[in-house]
Design brief:
two-stranded antiparallel ribbon, 8 strands, single chain, six-stranded antiparallel sheet, alpha+beta
Length: about 140
């Protein structure tokens, strides 16, 4: 009798899970929206990629990308293998925070949601093409 009850309960549980509605996928914010990363010093940031000395792309645990624009240059950023996060006592990394690269504190201007960055070689190729195009532009004469 007990085994019959256990089998009946197991069957009822399985039938409920089959008919259960699948949860809607979480919709991430639009690209270019000011954002924040909670608990960056506790594994919330899993990857980073420098954008020269002007900014840095950050990837969080859910594989979302952010672009942090820096206030002025952070000269060793392009060669850094590790960085630190200074949140100023707050548990979140946002536009009021800083990154630390080889002892140099680099404050942020903004932290916005972003797409995954292009590979480095493609970014350099596009940057060089823009420089060449800028040289071809002629200023209007008076």
């Amino acid at each position: 009798m007990k085994s019959f009850i256990i089998i009946a309960l197991a069957a009822a549980t399985l039938s409920d899970s089959v008919h259960a509605k699948k949860p809607e996928p979480y919709v991430w914010p639009e690209l270019g929206v000011e954002s924040k990363i909670i608990f960056p010093n506790h594994g919330a940031i899993r990857n980073f990629e420098a954008d020269g000395s002007d900014g840095i792309w950050l990837e969080d645990r859910q594989r979302r990308w952010y672009y942090a624009e820096l206030l002025g240059g952070c000269y060793d950023l392009n060669f850094a293998q590790a960085i630190g996060f200074d949140t100023g006592g707050s548990p979140q990394f946002d536009k009021f925070s800083s990154i630390i690269v080889r002892g140099q504190k680099c404050p942020l201007i903004s932290l916005q949601t972003s797409e995954k960055p292009l590979p480095r070689k493609e970014r350099l190729k596009l940057r060089n093409a823009a420089k060449v195009a800028a040289k071809d532009v002629v200023a209007p004469s008076n």
